[in-house]
């Protein structure tokens, strides 16, 4: 790894997990015996391109989350920090950005409940971000997408010009920090980090990937994730 390039991975795990239900937050739910959060962290802990890691967690879970990480990664392969998230995802990421080491060049922002990213994807996004300053993984749409109004279909969107994006989204550190500062200054809110960069007026590359990098949001997603591991579809 180029010693001049320091990359920080921000893993966003401060959500309440209400959509999945149950007493255990989804980032701590077991996936084939291992918490989803731990599986999502693994590629970053062992990637030579990542210098350090910041995990956002619910304030009431700070000690639990840190202890859980140390249970699986002790001694830790690289420095990590667990910080309290904010009211919204945007608040959590902005707080984490302010905790990044001063020498950070690139920032990887990744959902704690996307456990199937690969080392190859990290490397591909890293290379693109060095060139274009902002890149997100994306997948082609397979279904027809309709815009609706109340209870009726309004129009069919042109699928060839649409992609669905995921994480990790990778940015030049100064660019994403400036984007967040501009968003807060103007009162602009989004759950997508790239949208803030777009709002600033900068361009964001997309990088086509497969369909396995999905977000576990409900019981069906969790069932699918178990099947993927059981069938050894992803190694």
Description of the structure:
The protein has 235 residues and is an alpha/beta fold. It has a single domain, classed as Spore Coat Polysaccharide Biosynthesis Protein SpsA, Chain A (Alpha-Beta Complex). It is built from seven helices and twelve strands. It has helices at residues 36-46, 62-72, 89-97, 119-132, 173-186, 193-200, 219-230, and strands at residues 6-12, 30-31, 34-35, 52-57, 80-84, 104-111, 134-140, 146-149, 152-156, 163-165, 169-172, 205-208. The strands form three sheets. Strands 1, 4, 5, 6, 7, 10, 11 and 12 form an eight-stranded mixed sheet that branches. The protein has a two-stranded antiparallel sheet with strand order 2-3. α5 crosses α6. It is globular and about 55 Å long. The mean pLDDT is 93.
Shape verdict: globular
CATH superfamily: Spore Coat Polysaccharide Biosynthesis Protein SpsA, Chain A
Class by SSE composition: alpha/beta
**How far apart are the first and last residues' alpha carbons, in Å?**
24 Å
Element-by-element helix/strand order: EEEHEHEHEHEEEEEHHEH
Helicity level: 25-40%
How many independent structural domains? Answer: 1
Average pLDDT works out at 93
Rg measurement, Å:
18 Å
Which CATH architecture would you pick?
Alpha-Beta Complex
Q: Give me the CATH fold name.
A: Spore Coat Polysaccharide Biosynthesis Protein SpsA, Chain A
Number of strands: 12
Assess the beta-strand content as a share of residues: 15-25%
Classified by CATH, the class is Alpha Beta
Low-confidence stretches: none
């Amino acid at each position: 790894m180029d010693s001049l390039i320091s990359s920080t991975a921000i893993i966003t795990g401060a959500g309440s997990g209400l959509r999945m239900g149950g007493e255990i937050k989804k980032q701590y739910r077991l996936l084939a015996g291992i918490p989803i959060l731990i599986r999502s962290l693994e590629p970053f802990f062992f990637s030579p391109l990542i210098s350090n890691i910041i995990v956002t967690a619910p304030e009431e879970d700070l000690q639990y989350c840190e202890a859980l990480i140390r249970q699986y990664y002790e001694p830790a392969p690289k420095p990590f920090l667990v910080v309290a998230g904010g009211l919204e995802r945007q608040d959590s990421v902005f707080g984490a950005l302010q905790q990044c080491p001063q020498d950070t060049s690139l920032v990887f922002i990744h959902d704690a409940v996307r456990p199937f990213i690969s080392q190859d994807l990290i490397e591909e996004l890293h290379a693109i971000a060095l060139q274009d300053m902002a890149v997100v993984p994306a997948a082609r749409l397979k279904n027809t997408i309709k815009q609706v109004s109340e209870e009726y279909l309004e129009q069919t969107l042109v699928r060839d010009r649409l992609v669905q994006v995921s994480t990790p989204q990778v940015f030049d550190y100064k660019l994403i920090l400036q984007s967040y500062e501009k968003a807060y200054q103007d009162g602009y809110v989004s759950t997508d980090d790239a949208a803030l960069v777009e709002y600033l007026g900068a361009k964001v590359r997309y990088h086509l990937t497969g369909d396995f990098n999905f977000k576990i949001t409900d019981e069906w997603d969790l069932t699918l994730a178990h099947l993927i591991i059981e069938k050894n579809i992803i190694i």
